[in-house]
Amino acid sequence: MKALYLKSYYFPESLASSYLGTQTQEAMAREGIKMELYTPMPSRGIDKQTRKIYSKLRVEHKMDGMLTIRRFPLFAEKKSLALRALRYTLQCIKLFNRGVFAKAAKDVDVIMAASTPPILGPTAALIKMIRHKPIIYNLQDIFPDSLVGTGMTHKGSMLWKIGRCLENFTYRHCDKIIVVSEEFKRNIMAKGVPSDKIEVIYNWVDENVVIPVPKAENPLYEELGVDRSKFTVVYAGNLGNAQNIDIIIDAAARLKDKENIQFVIFGTGGLEEDIRGRISEDRLTNLSLHPLQPYEKVSQVYSLGDVCIVSCKAGLGGSAMPSKTWSIMSCGRPVLANFDKGELKTILESWGCGVFTQANDLHGFVAAIEALATAPEKCVSMGEAGRKFILENLTKDAGTKKYIDVIKSVAQ
Questions:
Q1: Closest Cα to residue 354, out of 323, 389, 374, 383?
Q2: SS3 state at 64
Q3: Ranges in the chain annotated CATH 3.40.50.2000
Q4: CATH superfamily name and code, 2-204+395-411
Q5: Which H or E run includes 127?
Q6: How far apart are CA 95 and CA 72, in angstroms?
Q7: Chain segment 197-211, per-residue pLDDT in tens
Q8: Closest residue by Cα to residue 278 from 243, 315, 251
Q9: C-beta separation of 118 from 89 below 8 A
Q10: For 215-393, which CATH class?
Q11: pLDDT, tens digit, for every residue of 15-40?
């Protein structure tokens, strides 16, 4: 069996959920499934020297030859929305050409595509129409819903209508759609997608790699100059509009006179420079910003926090389910959510593994931080409950097996 992967980003680009793709591909290789992966030259979150190295590394073989990565040239990702849209368009044209005409892609049994950018799904659908191969679509973000939530457009606008047309076209031509939550499933079923076309597979964590690291043994405190004696609030992930980083900065501003509380943000994204500007402008000595760390350090990153944040802009909770939630729990740390009511709230409250506050509720968010800072025993017990949830529900082997089962069922 052979799979064609269409990817917008790939190693060494640093994304919070990159490990999911890598672990799925490792499981596929163990099952004897060969993979042809097409992706642009890397640019997100890497330096010029790394990009220069990979500009010469057009073809790469991994996993004992079971995975072949074929990179094509494309200008580096820019902050400008217009330039990013152009890059995505050119990328999808190149992916289409390779999916249809590349010799190495002609004998594939299944096409694997993800939801970023939103035109990648239609690209896969067009390849299917020519090659007559089934598609498995990995829906990590729901467009155009997420664009509405971030304020980039509004329901009923021309952009929204175009997004809905692209969405419907993609769903209609996919053979299986993998979604990351029951809320996602309900969302696309309401848009006419039949239930039997949808598979719910939660983003998992490798419970043997993402583990609790005791404070006394965590080297990040020294490496980053973080005070081990203070109550530490951690956010790690993308620094974009959807994540509502402003509420974290606002909370730090409200609490900057609380000498026992500090904030640590790890991330990269379009708002990074704006965030640095606010930290400087507001003189937030209680907040530090650091690059997103490699996956090998994920346990140290989340274990650095006495509590770790999962946040979104109001209205986005139904079209986003951050996989960082499970990494936080696997590290035995409580989740502090500033999120829309829904599945995340239910899990946190039913398992007692975190505190939920409504998206954009700054007062409740700040109050929760202050309360947790005075209740270390509660933080420990919630962290233990989160670790238990992962071990009983979201292990790596369980998650990757579900992917393999879907691939085999579609490619038969």
A1: 383
A2: coil
A3: 2-204+395-411, 215-393
A4: Glycogen Phosphorylase B; (3.40.50.2000)
A5: helix 120-131
A6: 9
A7: 999 999 999 999 999
A8: 251
A9: no
A10: alpha beta
A11: 767 889 999 999 999 999 999 999 99
